[in-house]
Write a structure and sequence with these properties.
Elements lengths: L1 E2 L13 H10 L4 E4 L7 H10 L4 E3 L12 H14 L5 E7 L7 H17 L4 E6 L2 H13 L4 E3 L6 H9 L3 E4 L10 H5 L9 E3 L21 H12 L3 H16 L2
Parallel strand pairs: 1-2, 2-3, 4-5, 5-6, 6-7, 7-8
């Protein structure tokens, strides 16, 4: 299994990081891709990758929730790093209209600019969208037409939105939310118009723990719970889900 989205580099996880990674490997999770947030966690992100090169793979980007007054300085740092070395993806980037609407225009500017950089460096993108799914799809569409690909992380939209994303050549990141009874995600994913080939799995650790760990700190070792639920929803077996989601993750990230 591959965890396509986990913030295991966060400073709060440092005391247990080695044990966390060992638990993940024991659970069959062979790799975790780590999305960037902003400059405050940059050193920890890169140091974690360096310390666990056989397990942790870094992305580079500015998370929309961290687009503030200094966003241009933050973007300059992202651009500098993208020019210095290779990363798995540009991410996580996107639009978030849940917490704060003060920087909507700046989020849009940062999102578009980072997608341009992804095309420039031939990298996929990992997209965060909250309370902005239609706007995000609309913003991504012209870049998808130019060949941009990637993941809509923590997908929680409708069947129609899922089809639009898949038609653009993107895939859906499925995590712990799938195990929540009232999320409605299981009903969406049951549709034949959303094939297993269009899905990857993730934890978003340390957030969004799957049932029965909901409300507790998430970790990559919990990924099998997502895979098991996805197998049930798609009417198949766990090994098939692992085969398809791992293959797609490797196709996206290229390493």
């Amino acid at each position: 299994m591959i965890d396509t989205h986990a913030h295991i580099y966060l400073k709060e996880l440092e005391p247990e990081r080695s044990a966390l990674i060992e638990r993940a490997k024991a659970a069959g999770v062979e790799r975790s891709y780590m999305p960037a947030i902003d400059s405050s966690e940059m050193d920890s992100l890169l140091e974690t990758e360096q310390q666990y090169p056989d397990y942790c793979v870094a992305m580079m980007g500015l998370h929309p929730c961290y687009v503030k007054e200094n966003f241009q300085d933050e973007l300059a740092l992202v651009e500098n790093w993208l020019g210095k070395r290779s990363f798995a993806a540009v991410g996580e980037i996107g639009l978030d209209r849940y917490w704060d609407r003060s920087f909507d225009q700046q989020q849009l500017e940062a999102f578009r600019l980072q997608m341009e950089w992804a095309l420039k460096y031939n990298l996929p993108v990992v997209i965060h969208t909250r309370e902005a799914m239609d706007a995000t799809i609309e913003t991504v569409s012209p870049f998808a037409e130019r060949g941009l690909r990637g993941i809509f992380h923590c997908f929680g939209g409708t069947e129609e939105q899922a089809k639009q994303i898949i038609d653009m050549g993107f895939c859906l990141g499925i995590g712990g939310v799938l195990t929540y009874k009232k999320s409605g995600l299981a009903e969406v994913l049951q549709s034949d118009s959303i094939p297993l080939e269009a899905l990857v799995v993730e934890t978003d650790a340390p957030y969004l723990s799957p049932v029965p760990h909901r409300g507790k700190k998430n970790e990559p070792a919990f990924l099998p719970l997502v895979v098991q639920r996805l197998a049930e929803v798609k009417g198949t077996d766990v090994n098939t889900v692992i085969e398809y989601t791992t293959k797609r993750a490797l196709e996206i990230f290229g390493k």
